[in-house]
């Protein structure tokens, strides 16, 4: 079987899409999941995009030991120099440069002739090569490029030193048959391309990204670029979990194997959904809640007789546990600790004690505590950044009916000082947020995300609230977890608003 490399770009193509921005701590958390998954390459970001991007690419490059770490760069010296500066401390650094090759992009975006694009390809690939032997070149909008010209560009990049050449379907326009033919065409016409990695990078505008990537493999591609949960520009990229499980499940067709530890897929997917404050769509292949459920009588009957009747892959193979143990208020510290260990959490005694207090408090509100609840507690406590100088919730009271305006009275505390406010609002949450604003007077901002998700089933479920505020091009996130969604919303908003205030007071 041929070996397929998995190049993950969740932290670059995924992170640059609206609603998916991550802070440094979150990016490092995702990088850790990707390393556990054993992806071959982590594209950590686009180092030149901002000082924050540079810092996170550098931090990821320094943290990751077992994967190549790449930074994206346009085909300019400054971009390439910055990309190298950011990744140079990685165990295996890669510079990933790109230039567009389609007539539309060359004429209207780059305002360059095809000859100029060829010259730039040669010069900038050679420039990157001065820093490292590991250079990837991408021909942006390859699938709408003239194949003959594309072959020329690929040859030029390889001769200048590229060891990986990527042919992106930048706008998600191509079809599986076309993708297979394009890769085969390049391999046929560019002899040098047979000795390097040939990569595909497919966007999902027509819902064909996974199919196109697999077709690329059938055409001869040896690297697939993808993202966790298919995040990415517009409709997203090839989803890592789907493409990997397709390769595994239909190895008879593709005859190609990635090195991925598939049992880490669910954890990675959940981590990323959690960071962007969204649940997986119910019917999302591989990781959606319904992906392994059999509701109809006929299906249930078949599965009871033999699982293979309706299951082509097992939940265990992607790390979904089926023995969902339930804890409750009579469960002691030992049972709590044992279950967390079984769930794969290696926590310090201090972390365990703090979590046990939260677990007991939750037991008073909720009869049964499921694995999902436990994991939410762990994830949530690892995300709360204590801010001693910020405002904290002291107490709140809301009054809401279906025929009057909602009111919220709130008391916040900062250090020893307490502050109270009362506000009307369009519903209790709006009233609460307005009352908070009245006290803390944050700079003008907009809501990038306000989402409320339930952790488990039942009306006593924990509500998991994500708030992402944006101001001056930066995002500030907060999380709240409680069986009371108004309290969770207040906590999440306060956390995000404290970060916003801290940032702007630092900026002066
Ligand atoms: O979609 C695309 O073309 C890209 C390249 C920059 C690789 O993301
Ligand atoms: Zn892309």
UniProtKB/TrEMBL annotation:
Keyword annotations: Acyltransferase, Amino-acid biosynthesis, Branched-chain amino acid biosynthesis, Cytoplasm, Leucine biosynthesis, Manganese, Metal-binding, Transferase
EC number: 2.3.3.13
Region (Regulatory domain): 392-508
GO cellular component, one term: cytoplasm
Cofactor(s) the protein requires to work: Mn(2+)
Pfam families linked: HCS_D2, HMGL-like, LeuA_dimer
Residues binding Mn(2+): 13, 201, 203, 237
Job of this protein: Catalyzes the condensation of the acetyl group of acetyl-CoA with 3-methyl-2-oxobutanoate (2-ketoisovalerate) to form 3-carboxy-3-hydroxy-4-methylpentanoate (2-isopropylmalate).
Family indicated by similarity: Belongs to the alpha-IPM synthase/homocitrate synthase family. LeuA type 1 subfamily.
Protein name (Swiss-Prot/TrEMBL): 2-isopropylmalate synthase
Organism: Candidatus Avoscillospira avicola
């Amino acid at each position: 079987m041929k070996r397929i490399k998995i190049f993950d770009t969740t932290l670059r193509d995924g992170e640059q899409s609206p609603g998916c921005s991550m802070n440094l701590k979150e990016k490092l958390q995702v990088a850790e999941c990707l390393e556990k998954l054993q992806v071959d390459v982590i594209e950590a970001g686009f180092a030149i995009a901002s000082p924050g991007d540079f810092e996170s690419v550098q931090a990821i490059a320094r943290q990751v030991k077992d994967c190549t770490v790449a930074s994206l760069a346009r085909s300019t010296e400054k971009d390439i120099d910055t990309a190298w500066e950011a990744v140079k401390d990685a165990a295996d650094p890669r510079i990933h440069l790109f230039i567009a090759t389609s007539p539309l992009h060359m004429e209207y975006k780059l305002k360059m002739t095809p000859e100029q694009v060829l010259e730039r390809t040669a010069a900038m690939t050679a420039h990157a090569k001065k820093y490292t032997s590991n250079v990837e070149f991408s021909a942006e909008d390859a699938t709408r490029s003239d194949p003959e010209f594309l072959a020329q560009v690929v040859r030029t990049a390889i001769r200048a030193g590229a060891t990986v050449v990527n042919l992106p379907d930048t706008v998600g326009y191509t079809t599986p048959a076309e993708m297979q033919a394009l890769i085969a065409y390049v391999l046929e016409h560019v002899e040098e391309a047979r000795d390097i990695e040939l990569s595909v990078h497919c966007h999902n505008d027509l819902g064909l990204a996974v199919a196109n990537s697999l077709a690329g493999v059938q055409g001869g591609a040896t690297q697939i670029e993808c993202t966790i949960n298919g995040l990415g520009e517009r409709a997203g990229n090839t989803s890592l979990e789907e493409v990997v499980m397709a390769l595994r499940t239909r190895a008879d067709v593709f005859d190609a194997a990635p090195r991925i530890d598939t049992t880490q897929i669910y954890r990675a997917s959940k981590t990323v959904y959690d960071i962007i404050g969204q649940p997986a769509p119910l019917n999302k292949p591989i990781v959606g809640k319904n992906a392994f459920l059999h509701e109809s009588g006929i299906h249930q009957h078949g599965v009871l007789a033999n699982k293979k009747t309706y299951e082509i892959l097992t939940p265990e193979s992607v790390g979904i546990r089926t023995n969902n143990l339930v804890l409750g208020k009579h469960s002691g510290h030992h049972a709590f600790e044992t279950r967390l260990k079984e769930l794969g959490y290696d926590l310090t005694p201090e972390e365990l004690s703090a979590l046990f207090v939260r677990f007991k408090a939750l037991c008073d509100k909720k009869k049964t505590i499921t694995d999902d609840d436990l994991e939410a507690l762990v994830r949530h406590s690892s995300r709360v950044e204590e801010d001693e100088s910020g405002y904290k919730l002291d107490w709140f009271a809301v009054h809401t009916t279906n025929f009057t305006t909602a009111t919220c009275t709130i008391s916040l505390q900062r250090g020893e000082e307490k502050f109270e406010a009362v506000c009307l609002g369009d519903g209790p949450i709006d009233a609460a947020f307005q009352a908070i604003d009245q006290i803390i007077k944050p700079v003008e901002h907009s809501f990038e995300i306000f989402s409320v998700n339930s952790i488990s089933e039942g009306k006593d479920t924990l509500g998991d609230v994500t708030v992402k505020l944006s101001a001056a091009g930066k995002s500030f996130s907060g999380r709240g977890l409680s069986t009371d969604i108004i309290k969770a919303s207040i906590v999440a908003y306060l956390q995000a608003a404290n970060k916003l205030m801290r940032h702007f007071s630092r900026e002066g």
